[in-house]
Amino acid sequence: MVGAMNGSAIAASGLRKSYKDKTVLDGVDLDVRAGTIFALLGPNGAGKTTTVNVLTTLLTPDAGKAVVAGHDVSTEARAVRAAIGVTGQFASVDNLLTGEENLLMMADLLHLPKAEGRRITARLLGRFELTEAAGKLAASYSGGMRRKLDLAMTLVGNPQIIFLDEPTTGLDPRSRRTMWQIIRELVADGTTIFLTTQYLEEADELADRIAVLDRGRLVAEGTAGELKRRVPGSHIRLRFTDRHGLDVAARVLPGSTRDDEELTLRVPGDGGVRSLRALLDRLDAQSVEVEELSVHTPDLDDVFLALTGHGNLTGHENSGGHENPDGHDNEEVGAR
Amino acid sequence: MSALTASLADSTTMMRRNFRHTMRNPLTLFNAVLMPMFMMFLMVYVLGGAFSVGVDYVDYATPGVIIMTVCYGIGPTATAVNSDMTTGFINRLRVMDVSRAAVLNAHVIATVLRTLVAIAFIIGVAFLMGFRPSAGLPQWLGAIGIIVLTALAISWLTVAAGLAAKSPEGAGILGVPLMLLPFLSSAFTPADKMGPGARQFAEYQPFTPIIETLRGFLTGTPSAGTTLTAAAWCAGLALVGYLWARVSFTKRA
What we know:
The complex is a heterodimer of chains A (about 325) and B (about 250). Chain A has about 325 residues and is of the alpha/beta class. Chain A contains twelve helices and 14 strands. Chain A folds into two domains: about 10-230, 3-Layer(aba) Sandwich (Rossmann fold); about 235-295, Alpha-Beta Plaits (2-Layer Sandwich). Chain A is about 35% helix and about 25% strand. In chain A, the strands form three sheets. Chain A has a six-stranded mixed sheet with strand order 6-7-8-3-9-10, with helices on both faces. A four-stranded antiparallel sheet of chain A has the order 2-1-4-5, with helices on one face. Chain B is mainly alpha-helical. Chain B has one domain (about 5-250). The model of chain B has no long low-confidence stretch (mean pLDDT about 90). The chains are: A alpha/beta (about 325), B mainly alpha (about 250). Chains A and B meet through helix 2, strand 6 and helix 3 of A and helix 1 and helix 5 of B.
């Protein structure tokens, strides 16, 4: 049974797709365990939506194979469709229908009995706090409400696997938090979530595993922690109460860099418990008192830079004042 | 549920949706009759007196205005189909295995019905302005037949254009030739009174035989040759629109 825990909900190998001479997917392999959240992280134009379109049977890949919910997307599209739900990049709700009518329309298209359709609609409206707005046209909804309605429409069919293409792009911080909460609840119920995002924070916050997509290729995959550890530059920062402590520590910890003004020492290391304990033991042996210790791991933005060697994910999120929307600007980022 | 009953159920669901759209956006109907009504007044009361067409001018112009009404009523369809495409609504339906036929047929049928309502209104106005057709029941049925055929052809073309266009604005622009072509036909003056070039163009474009056929039915003297030409044009245009829509529906994910 596909939905069984720890089985593969989505397995893809060697997916390729190009339009004319532009390669959008250049050999993508994916493995998403059932009941987990998987984030496909990448800048605009990396191929995220194309990947979703291939996995959801909307697009035929030029090469490669994808199995979703145990069925081949090319040869068993119908079986795949029966098991999945998709919420696209734009809230695809019908503006001239009310929230309730939108949901009932989905129930009708799924050929559910009338009574069941009404029951599911009422439950989803309640769950997404849309009961009050149920009778209003979707055109009058806020951005956050539209996204919720959009997701609710996807849930009418009770899919095993849900694809969310940039589910929070354009949402205000509060609506984004609400959406995250909803996504976590879905997984708690056993649903598998495949989401794409260009927000580091979102992948970090939600995903069990993250794959980084860049120009149609996966450049890394792992948990947020694993990805961060792959990047050189993790270090432990120690602060001392006086100059003497700093001197002694600098002597016994080779490779460290000292800052006399701040009375701090920067020691390369991944911050793992074992190495941390060894470090403290050495300082203890010299009776050096440490006032403060902190472990600095690079964030996913550093990861992306280190993995691709070009550009960051979302220019505006990383301050520095320079917009870098296409994520392909070597120099500026290199100079950062 | 068999494929056919599923498809019929989906068509009903999509029809209900399109029907609600029209009811909630009555401006689309208003717009569809506003321009043709203006043309009617302009041609009959302002310009038409100067044309000699051999019959009462309102009787001559009404068939042209009726066909223009078909062309002026399609704007909302192009926009609606395009927004279904660009907002991902159609992709949502495709992932739900809703048949292509259900989605597209609903748009076409809704457009044809809306057009027929607008045309009924325009014919009412024409009667008030002195339109006196000599058609009996069979001729009226023939007239309705050619109107429905034209509306079907134009609707399929519009749905296809709406699917293919990159934006609602783009979809709207594709409708402009359809609004201009009737002016270069025998809608308001007979083709043989036009200058060289314009006359040949008018004679060989689809709207002239279509309007002549409708005029023929309404004044009781349809020519078999023209009627066949008009029907062939309608069938051809509908087929082109239908095939184009099919391709766009599947291709644009």
